[in-house]
Amino acid sequence: MPDNTKEIDNKKSSNPMASIIDVERRSGEAVDQYPEFFGSVEHQNTIDEVKAIVKSFFPSYKELYVNHRVNRGHPMTVIKVAEPKFPNTLPTKTKERVYKEPLERLGVETVFAKGTNSYLYRIKHKETA
Protein backbone atom coordinates (compact mmCIF):
# COMPACT_ATOMS: atom_id res chain seq x y z
CA MET A 1 0.00 0.00 0.00
CA PRO A 2 1.51 3.38 -0.99
CA ASP A 3 1.96 6.02 1.66
CA ASN A 4 -0.48 8.83 0.83
CA THR A 5 0.74 11.13 3.59
CA LYS A 6 1.32 14.68 2.36
CA GLU A 7 4.14 16.73 3.83
CA ILE A 8 4.32 20.43 4.63
CA ASP A 9 7.29 22.45 5.82
CA ASN A 10 5.89 24.61 8.60
CA LYS A 11 7.64 26.51 11.38
CA LYS A 12 7.07 26.63 15.11
CA SER A 13 5.42 29.80 16.27
CA SER A 14 7.63 32.43 17.84
CA ASN A 15 4.66 33.36 20.05
CA PRO A 16 2.80 30.16 21.04
CA MET A 17 0.21 31.96 23.19
CA ALA A 18 -0.78 34.24 20.31
CA SER A 19 -1.03 31.20 18.06
CA ILE A 20 -3.35 29.44 20.50
CA ILE A 21 -5.59 32.51 20.72
CA ASP A 22 -5.66 32.79 16.93
CA VAL A 23 -6.50 29.10 16.44
CA GLU A 24 -9.32 29.32 18.99
CA ARG A 25 -10.70 32.47 17.33
CA ARG A 26 -10.58 30.96 13.82
CA SER A 27 -12.07 27.69 15.08
CA GLY A 28 -15.01 29.56 16.62
CA GLU A 29 -15.54 31.54 13.43
CA ALA A 30 -15.55 28.32 11.38
CA VAL A 31 -18.19 26.75 13.63
CA ASP A 32 -20.30 29.91 13.43
CA GLN A 33 -20.03 29.88 9.63
CA TYR A 34 -20.82 26.16 9.14
CA PRO A 35 -22.79 25.02 12.21
CA GLU A 36 -24.60 22.21 10.37
CA PHE A 37 -21.35 20.60 9.24
CA PHE A 38 -19.38 20.92 12.48
CA GLY A 39 -22.37 20.06 14.66
CA SER A 40 -23.57 17.04 12.70
CA VAL A 41 -23.62 13.66 14.42
CA GLU A 42 -21.83 12.10 11.43
CA HIS A 43 -18.97 14.62 11.64
CA GLN A 44 -18.66 14.28 15.41
CA ASN A 45 -18.56 10.48 15.04
CA THR A 46 -15.79 10.78 12.44
CA ILE A 47 -13.79 13.01 14.80
CA ASP A 48 -14.21 10.45 17.58
CA GLU A 49 -13.18 7.59 15.29
CA VAL A 50 -10.03 9.40 14.10
CA LYS A 51 -9.05 10.25 17.67
CA ALA A 52 -9.55 6.62 18.71
CA ILE A 53 -7.42 5.34 15.80
CA VAL A 54 -4.61 7.77 16.56
CA LYS A 55 -4.67 7.26 20.33
CA SER A 56 -4.56 3.49 19.98
CA PHE A 57 -1.81 3.57 17.33
CA PHE A 58 0.77 5.94 18.85
CA PRO A 59 2.26 4.69 22.13
CA SER A 60 2.93 8.31 23.12
CA TYR A 61 2.67 11.89 21.85
CA LYS A 62 3.12 15.37 23.31
CA GLU A 63 -0.43 16.60 22.69
CA LEU A 64 -3.56 15.99 20.65
CA TYR A 65 -6.08 18.69 19.89
CA VAL A 66 -8.96 19.37 17.56
CA ASN A 67 -9.68 22.59 15.73
CA HIS A 68 -12.17 23.59 13.09
CA ARG A 69 -11.18 25.57 10.04
CA VAL A 70 -12.44 27.02 6.81
CA ASN A 71 -9.91 26.73 3.99
CA ARG A 72 -10.79 28.54 0.76
CA GLY A 73 -14.47 28.38 1.64
CA HIS A 74 -14.39 24.69 2.59
CA PRO A 75 -15.01 23.60 6.19
CA MET A 76 -12.79 20.98 7.78
CA THR A 77 -11.72 19.72 11.15
CA VAL A 78 -8.04 19.16 11.86
CA ILE A 79 -6.84 16.81 14.54
CA LYS A 80 -3.22 17.59 15.38
CA VAL A 81 -0.93 15.07 17.07
CA ALA A 82 2.31 16.69 18.18
CA GLU A 83 5.54 14.73 18.44
CA PRO A 84 4.06 11.24 18.08
CA LYS A 85 6.18 8.17 18.70
CA PHE A 86 5.61 5.47 16.10
CA PRO A 87 5.26 1.86 17.25
CA ASN A 88 8.39 0.52 15.53
CA THR A 89 7.79 -3.06 16.59
CA LEU A 90 4.60 -3.47 14.55
CA PRO A 91 4.87 -5.19 11.19
CA THR A 92 4.08 -3.00 8.18
CA LYS A 93 0.90 -4.95 7.36
CA THR A 94 -0.38 -4.40 10.91
CA LYS A 95 0.36 -0.65 10.67
CA GLU A 96 -1.60 -0.52 7.44
CA ARG A 97 -4.52 -2.49 8.91
CA VAL A 98 -4.87 -0.59 12.20
CA TYR A 99 -3.78 2.91 11.12
CA LYS A 100 -3.64 3.74 7.42
CA GLU A 101 -6.59 1.75 6.11
CA PRO A 102 -9.15 2.95 8.70
CA LEU A 103 -8.14 6.58 8.11
CA GLU A 104 -8.43 6.14 4.36
CA ARG A 105 -11.86 4.51 4.71
CA LEU A 106 -13.00 7.57 6.65
CA GLY A 107 -11.71 9.85 3.88
CA VAL A 108 -9.17 11.51 6.17
CA GLU A 109 -6.24 13.36 4.63
CA THR A 110 -3.02 12.78 6.58
CA VAL A 111 -0.36 15.50 6.53
CA PHE A 112 3.06 15.47 8.20
CA ALA A 113 4.22 18.90 9.39
CA LYS A 114 8.03 18.72 9.44
CA GLY A 115 8.68 21.96 11.29
CA THR A 116 6.63 20.94 14.32
CA ASN A 117 7.05 17.13 14.01
CA SER A 118 3.28 16.78 13.98
CA TYR A 119 0.65 14.84 12.09
CA LEU A 120 -2.49 16.61 10.94
CA TYR A 121 -5.61 14.60 10.19
CA ARG A 122 -7.95 16.62 8.00
CA ILE A 123 -11.64 15.70 8.02
CA LYS A 124 -13.22 17.59 5.16
CA HIS A 125 -16.80 18.21 4.18
CA LYS A 126 -17.60 15.35 1.79
CA GLU A 127 -19.11 17.65 -0.84
CA THR A 128 -16.04 19.91 -0.90
CA ALA A 129 -13.25 17.36 -0.29
Q: Can you give a write-up of this model?
A:
The protein has 129 residues and is α+β, with helices and mostly antiparallel strands. It has one domain (6-124). It is built from 4 helices and 5 strands, in the order E-H-H-H-E-E-H-E-E. The chain has helices spanning 16-33, 35-39, 41-57, 92-105; strands spanning 6-8, 63-71, 74-82, 109-113, 118-124. A 5-stranded mixed sheet has the order 1-4-5-3-2. Strand 4 (109-113) and strand 5 (118-124) form a beta hairpin. Helix 3 (41-57) runs antiparallel to helix 4. The two termini are 22 Å apart.
Structural topology:
Elements: E1 6-8, H1 16-33, H2 35-39, H3 41-57, E2 63-71, E3 74-82, H4 92-105, E4 109-113, E5 118-124
Parallel strand pairs: 1-4
Antiparallel strand pairs: 2-3, 3-5, 4-5
Helix pairs in contact: 3-4
Radius of gyration: 15 Å
State mean pLDDT (0 to 100 scale). Answer: 87
The total number of structural domains is 1
CA distance, first residue to last residue: 22 Å
Which spans of ≥5 residues are poorly predicted at pLDDT below 50?
Answer: none
Overall 3D shape: globular
Return the structural class. Answer: alpha+beta
Largest sheet descriptor: 5 strands, mixed
Query: Treating each run of at least 4 consecutive H or I residues as one helix, how many helices?
Result: 4
Instruction: Give the fraction of residues assigned to helices.
Output: 40-55%
DSSP strand tally: 5
Order of helices and strands: EHHHEEHEE
Tell me the β content.
25-35%
Strand order of the largest sheet: 1-4-5-3-2
